[in-house]
Amino acid sequence: MQEQPDPALAPGLTAVVELTVTDADTAQALGSGDVPVLGTPRVLALAEAATVAATAARLAAGTTTVGLRVELEHRAATPIGRTVRAQARLAEVDGRRLAFEVTVTDGDGIVADGRVERMVVDRRRFVERAARHA
Hints:
By secondary structure, the protein is of the alpha+beta class. The chain has helices spanning 27-30, 40-55, 123-132, and strands at residues 14-20, 63-74, 83-94, 97-105, 110-122.
């Protein structure tokens, strides 16, 4: 039996999150390089935060989403003090699988863009299973 998509989670849902880059967000601080600009791991975390925000108010009680797959191209460097905005748009719903298009901008243009896939799960069961594998 194929799972039917939750009608509350329809393509088109969007969210935007912002971050002003600090020393803690740099490639140097995150261990992903030795330059004092916004690090790729932080760009990814910001993009994922936008995907979570896009669906958070629409999820059924007791459910959450977890990351499955990411395709992200980090296109431009962003210096400390600059504000970046990550926008996520739910592009596709396939049962419990959610596919988002994400774009991160800094006012001058695109910093990063790509696709993030998440899965809707029962939060309690997910945490219990993870604890058994610890």
